[in-house]
């Protein structure tokens, strides 16, 4: 079944049997007990002036807001982090709420590789029930600790980065930030993929599953290690074991997994009937371009398969394929319901040699000034008139529109599964402040 077809409902002429298979796989891990459900209310924020009117969404209740963040890419996650910081800043201005966070304006977040780490930082419950990190704190954290979260030095083989075990430095860093928080301790549903060597299939860490059973609840610090490097891990009850490697192998661009999860999760998203009822923001992490030598790198990589270049090219190609498939799935609504933020990086080698956090953040900000590139139905790509930064401004206006619309609508857009947080609190901020695609069998 094609990636585009996997995103569609029967109303989109999707093969009914394939849809039912996806539904069965997803519903196996979803609640059917109403006592665990609670209506999600609009986050506290004063009324604001609305952006220019747009055609009303297909659901009178509003659209489900989905965030997707790619694996590391050419910028080691800094471009996506900078995009989130820009988006959060814009949301604060439009809402008039200086303490607003990214998690206040999204209903579900998916992140792969370092994107999974970003999702964990932004959606883990911190003191007083608020998200642990702001986007500005997260981008600074990533810039300061990039070396601890990414492979170092030249690799001896094409697979050395993929099978890199998380070291003591990475473990200490994640433990200090996330403490003993588990998937249950996120403020909104999160989805973080890895590849499970023990089953030979992708695995999707999901808050929905964690709330349902301890067998699918994992320490967030181990989830981050699993998606950004590799880790042998157990669920909090010790029943489920996973031999995990790089989330980029399973889903470098997790947007398709996020859409599939929402479309098949009718308990938490009861009014979603198709992609028309979604607002998806997908953040890339930079990729090399043909003009900057991508074709030359591809030829060299193919002539010498041991080079790690082939992994980078394959990862970028897979992410681009998901982008095209998602764009096709949205059809005529691809420009109003789907936004892809991606950058072309000409000096990815130089980018990775910079150690100064300030210089890294400045480089990431420069990429936001690039023209946004859109996927056009059956026509490949075209350069937008707006820059990535301007596109993020437009997205923030749409998110505020949805946020304010929920205050006026008595119908709940989302009904989150609820479970008692496993940890009472997470570690204090570090110096930076200053459902399953496949499952592991319980063993």
From TrEMBL:
PROSITE patterns, per database record: PNPLA (PS51635)
Source organism (scientific name): Colocasia esculenta (Wild taro)
Residues covered by the PNPLA domain: 68-259
Xref: InterPro entries: Acyl_Trfase/lysoPLipase (IPR016035), PNPLA_dom (IPR002641)
Family affiliation: Belongs to the patatin family.
Keywords for this protein: Hydrolase, Lipid degradation, Lipid metabolism
UniProt KW Lipid metabolism keyword: yes
GO molecular function, a single term: hydrolase activity
Compositionally biased residues, Low complexity: 419-436
UniProt record, GO biological process: lipid catabolic process
Pfam families referenced in this protein's UniProt entry, alphabetically: Patatin
Region (Disordered): 419-443
Function according to Swiss-Prot or TrEMBL: Lipolytic acyl hydrolase (LAH). Possesses non-specific lipolytic acyl hydrolase (LAH) activity. Hydrolyzes phospholipids as well as galactolipids. May play a role in disease resistance.
Superkingdom classification of source: Eukaryota
Motif residue range(s): DGA/G: 246-248
Comment block on domains: The nitrogen atoms of the two glycine residues in the GGXR motif define the oxyanion hole, and stabilize the oxyanion that forms during the nucleophilic attack by the catalytic serine during substrate cleavage.
Catalytic activity, EC: 3.1.1.-
UniProt entry tagged with the keyword Transmembrane: no
Record's protein name: Patatin
């Amino acid at each position: 079944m094609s990636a585009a077809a996997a995103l569609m409902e029967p109303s989109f002429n999707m093969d009914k049997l394939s849809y039912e298979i996806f539904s069965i796989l997803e519903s196996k891990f979803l609640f059917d007990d109403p006592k665990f459900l609670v209506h999600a209310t609009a986050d506290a924020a004063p009324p604001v002036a609305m952006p220019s009117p747009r055609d009303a969404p297909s659901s009178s209740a509003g659209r489900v807001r989905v965030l997707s963040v790619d694996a590391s890419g050419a910028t080691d996650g800094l471009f996506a982090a900078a995009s989130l910081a820009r988006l959060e800043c814009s949301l604060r201005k439009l809402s008039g709420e200086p303490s607003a966070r990214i998690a206040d304006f999204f209903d579900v977040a998916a992140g792969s590789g370092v994107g999974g780490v970003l999702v964990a930082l932004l959606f883990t419950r911190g003191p007083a029930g608020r998200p642990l990190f702001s986007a500005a704190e997260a981008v600074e954290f990533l810039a300061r600790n990039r070396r601890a979260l990414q492979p170092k030095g030249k690799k001896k083989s094409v697979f050395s980065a993929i099978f890199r075990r998380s070291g003591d430095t990475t473990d200490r860093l994640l433990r200090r930030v996330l403490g003993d928080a588990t998937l249950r301790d996120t403020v909104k549903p999160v989805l973080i993929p890895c590849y499970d060597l023990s089953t030979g299939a992708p695995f999707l860490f999901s808050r929905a599953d964690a709330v349902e059973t301890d067998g699918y609840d994992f320490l967030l610090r181990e989830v981050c290690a699993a998606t950004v490097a590799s880790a042998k891990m157990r669920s909090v009850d010790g029943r489920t074991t996973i031999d995990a490697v790089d989330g980029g192998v399973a889903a470098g661009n997790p947007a398709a997994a996020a859409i599939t999860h929402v479309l098949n999760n009718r308990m938490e998203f009861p009014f979603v009937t198709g992609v028309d009822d979604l607002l998806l923001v997908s953040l890339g992490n930079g990729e090399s371009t043909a003009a900057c030598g991508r074709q030359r790198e591809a030829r060299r990589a193919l002539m010498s398969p041991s080079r790690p270049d082939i992994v980078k090219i394959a990862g970028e190609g897979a992410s681009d394929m998901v982008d095209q498939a998602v764009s096709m799935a949205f059809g005529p609504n691809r420009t109003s319901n789907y936004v892809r933020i991606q950058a072309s990086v000409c000096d990815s080698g130089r980018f990775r040699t910079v150690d100064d956090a300030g210089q890294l953040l400045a480089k990431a900000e420069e990429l936001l000034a690039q023209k946004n590139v859109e996927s056009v139905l059956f026509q490949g790509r075209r350069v937008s008139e707006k820059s990535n930064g301007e596109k993020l401004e437009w997205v923030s206006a749409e998110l505020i529109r949805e946020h304010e619309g929920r205050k006026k609508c008595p119908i709940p857009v989302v009904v989150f599964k609820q479970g008692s947080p496993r940890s009472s609190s997470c570690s204090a901020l570090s110096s930076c402040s200053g459902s399953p695609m496949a499952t592991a069998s319980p063993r």
